[in-house]
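Help! Submission page says 'invalid entity' but I think these are all valid:
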Amino acid sequence: MIPALAPWRSPLEQALHNNRSQAHSRYVQLATVRPNGRPANRTVVFRGFTAVGNELSFVTDARSEKCEHIHHQPWGEVCWYFTETREQFRLGGELRLIGVDSPVECQDLRQAGWQRLSDAARSQFFWPHPGEPRVDPDRLTLSTPDPLNPPSSFCMVILSPTEVDHLQLQGDPHQRQHYYQPDQPDSDGVYAEWRAIALNP
Amino acid sequence: MIPALAPWRSPLEQALHNNRSQAHSRYVQLATVRPNGRPANRTVVFRGFTAVGNELSFVTDARSEKCEHIHHQPWGEVCWYFTETREQFRLGGELRLIGVDSPVECQDLRQAGWQRLSDAARSQFFWPHPGEPRVDPDRLTLSTPDPLNPPSSFCMVILSPTEVDHLQLQGDPHQRQHYYQPDQPDSDGVYAEWRAIALNP
């Protein structure tokens, strides 16, 4: 069963459309929690919604710190600020990684994610270990990426939001709409419908 | 004693200068950790460095969730993406709040922060409790802010970075420089100098 479009999808798609002239409108900031309990925050590129459900996809290097964070604490929050229309979406929910060792039924999604990348983006997965002391780039011989099959360093990050906060800074006072899905399924194991409430900004 | 300018200040000031044509180049994303251990992430406006030290200042409403987060876990990480020059700074460190109940020696900083705000920004501190169900704005009678003295809802947020990561996406491969200050002071109670290392992006 394909879940219905969540109610925050329409304002988010609208914002993407209204800000489409700016390449950076697909850049978002993803917060995770480090194993020492401190927050981490970095820019990632939105790679589209998954075909089923209301999930956002991103890609990462399996050797990056964020994978370690997600293994330790799978909750994340994306902050997405649209500079043209001056609106912000905050999307909090569980993150999951789809890597080379993930179940075979996830590998189609991973392969499709790889195939959608540009050549330049693909070649980054052959760079030396991210976050380690710099290797002189002149001393590297980089492999030419296979455009069909991802290397083991290629990993998808999937965010399944359960809370979304939409703030619009145009107009006075600002508008703030909060969408949420109860954390716990009901006694039949079914997650409740999304609810929406207007909040003070 | 005024601490020396940290080595990441110069590239950050340069980025601010190179991106100054865009108002949003002063907007950053601040990650904190909620009392339930999950991350939170939102856009805040950079309000300048404090006069002493290498600290970044922001303002917030004392009633906002982020104050609760910071009381619970004072560590934060700012992600600052500059759209024009395609570079990112991640600044992690301790956060402190300067509110109406903070020691008297902090109140000059708080007052100066208030006086630098625009009238529109000041008036937001008289809006109803942020994050609570929406109050009909037509039913509100808002006070006219005193331009000299902040209301009790006005709070400064000060970030004292101990780790800074600077990523430059222009050029191939990307450049990544990491600056850090050891967490623990040495046996004389003195914090070590900043160190810098080039990392693989």
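Support: the input was valid. A stray whitespace character was the problem, and the output above is from the cleaned input. The radius of gyration of chain B is 18 Å.
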